[in-house]
Structure formats: C-alpha cells, structure tokens
Amino acid sequence: MSFLPPELIFDILSRLPPKDLMRFLCVSKSWYALIHDQIFIKAHLQRSIETNSAPLTILLRKFSPECPPSHFFSLSFSDNETIGTAVKTEQPLKCPDEYTDILLDYSVHGLVWIHNDDESDMALWNPSIQKFKKIHVPNFEPDASSSSGSEMEQRREPRDTCYGFGYDSVHDDYKLVRIFEFANEGRIVGSQVHIYSLKSNSWKRIQDMPWNCFGIHHDYLMFCDGALSCLVYNRLCTNEVIILTLSLATEKYCQFRNPVHHPSINESRLILTVLGGCLCLCDTFLETQHDVWIMKEHGVAKSWTLLYSIEGGDLPWSIDFMCVPLVFSRDGEMVLLSDNNTTFFWYDLKGKSFKRAQFHGRPYLYEMTVVCWGSLCLLDGDPVIAEPETERQQKVPTTSTKRKYSSSEDEETYDDWY
C-alpha cells in the first residue's frame, strides 16, 4: 500500500465503518497513527453525517427484575429492512451488587451517556468501538437557600434532577448538563445548573433556569443544533407547556412555544425527542390521536410542521398508542417507531402503512432504547472489558425472592413475529 498517495489512503479509510477501522489499526504504524489522528476522526464523522452512511445501532436493555442490570443488547440492521440481529453487548460500568441499576440515555456522535441509578458512577461510552471514559462525579452540595424571593421561597429542599448530553461545536467539546430543581411545600421554587466539559474534565456552575420555567417533564434533555432542550411549565401563563433550550456554547437560555394547544395540559401526553436532526414533539391526545411534529428550523416556532398523525383505529396488532419515532429511513419516506418497549415497526409516511421489524435474538421485553451511530469518537478511551460470567452469577442472590441467574437464562431471547 506504500505506492498509494497518503491523501488517497485517507479518503478510502474515511469511508469505512468504525469496526473495520479498528481491525486496520494493526496494518502498519502509519495506519495506526492516521486512524488515531483527530483530523481523520473528525473527517470520518463529518462524512458519515453528510452522507447519512454511518452504521446504525439501537441499544436497549433487557427488562427483567430477576436478571443482572448490565444486560444490554445492540440491534443492527440495514436501511428499511424488516429483519435484523440482536447481539448482547458489554457496557463499561460494573455493578458492585445486585441492586445497582445501570441506565442509558441520549447518544451524540456515537457516544452514549451511561450511569448508575443514583448517578454516582457515570461514563461516556462508544459502543461501536467499545471505548469509554469515566466522568468524575463531584459531591454536589445544593444551595438550599435562595438569594431572592420571600422567606418561604428561601426555605427549599431538593426535588428533581435531570441531565442532558451534547456537543459544543464552537469549542469542540462534549458537555453534560445537570439541572437540579428545588421545592418548598411541594411547589418548585428554584434550580441549580452545572455543566461538565469533557475537554477540561471538570464541572462548573452556570446560570440557573429562568425563573418562569419549572417542572421539567422528563429525566433527560434532548440535544439538537448545539443546544439542549426540554419541556417545562410556564409560570407566566397558566396551563402552558413551553420548550426551554440551553446553548452549550454560550450557556444562554431561550424559550419558545410548542405547536400543541389543548384546553387542558392533562388531556395529552407530550414527549420531546429528536428525529432527523430536528426537534420532534409527540402528542398523544386523550388516547385517541397521536400527532408527531418536527421543528424544521431550530428555535423558530413558526417552523413546526406536522409530520404525521395516527388515529386509534389505524394501529395494527396490539401496538401501544404512545409510540416514539426513533429514526428516518435513508430516503426519508419511512420512520422506525418503538411502542412501549415491546415492538419495533416501520411507518410509511406516504402510504400510511405499517411493517413490523424483526430482530432475531432480542429480549422479549426491553427498555431504554437509544439510537446510536457508529463513530471513532473516544478512540483514545479505555477499552470495555467483558465481565467474567462467574462473577456475574455471584452477584445475583439465590434467595426465594429472586431466581438464580445462569448462563442459559442469559440467552433467553425472542424473535419478533407477524
């Protein structure tokens, strides 16, 4: 290969999937250096984004209170196809006991934020190349007093915590945001916001949420176009849910309305997600109609567009009405949906038809579905080391409250059927 010019080798390798590039690290010292070079890693990522060619993997966790919590699977399949394969995947966080839970959240550039249930142990993980980096978790000491407001507002106690993970393109840095809300007599009265920088490996406190925003709807924030977004209540307008965004580059907040307007916020279930690089709002109204909106121009409320609407009678099989869109097909004509952690299916936007997706070997029940694109990010991270099976078995109690876990049970899987 020495007769090929370096720029041609660069171009050829930048078109290959991450798993192939990992195998090519041992070809030569020059290839090893090239693939580890940050310029190449960014070029490889950029090409994947522009051509929409990155390998797609869906991560999920097997749902079973009787099995170890580190039970994860990755689903791989080709575009638009209804048949794929599920493979058990090792994750980087090891469980000290059978009661520790491991959770997945959002993915950016192939990196997944993974943590235990009390958020004392967390990491950024690239499952496509099985590399990770632990995140130092400081001993957050919430400020229980308020610098403004009445005496009642100053006496507050911790209530809810949510996180968001994203990429700051201005500073070329991956960041994790932690929002902590306080309450007084059940009423939310304030917040604290911290941000973690992967580049500096440090946390800092930034400006609190705007005073009129409270009650974040979910445990995580969604990343889109350099900002983290969430649904919150608006103190300035009764019965209104708005979208709050935080720019990772400027650390400034912005607020805008959502496209859904119902007489009562209790009449619908709202979920904010990201689809095709755009903010996406799922609205299930009175369990009779499911609308999905996308914001074509980030931060511009007028750009909300109804992507599709499904009425209760249109759903085939026994699909739960609250089905969440995961990803577009490469031609943009279909959307992969997940319904209540039991079924995957493709929805044809033009034909308004459904095709069930089969994943051989996937667990019957699953949770924490995360769409992850293949990349070389965190190539210099620590390798994920498989935990010996004997150690897993020792961590599971053998009392009557839980059945003993064995390697044969580990393979209990489910093939989708029509």
From TrEMBL:
Matching InterPro entries: F-box-assoc_dom_typ1, F-box-assoc_interact_dom, F-box-like_dom_sf, F-box_dom, Gal_Oxase/kelch_b-propeller, SCF_F-box_component
PROSITE patterns: FBOX
Source domain of life: Eukaryota
Region (Disordered): 388-418
Signal peptide start-end: none
Domain F-box: 1-43
Biased composition (Acidic residues): 408-418
A Pfam family that the UniProt record links to this protein: FBA_1
NCBIfam families per record: F_box_assoc_1
Protein name per UniProt: F-box domain-containing protein
Species assigned in the record: Prunus armeniaca
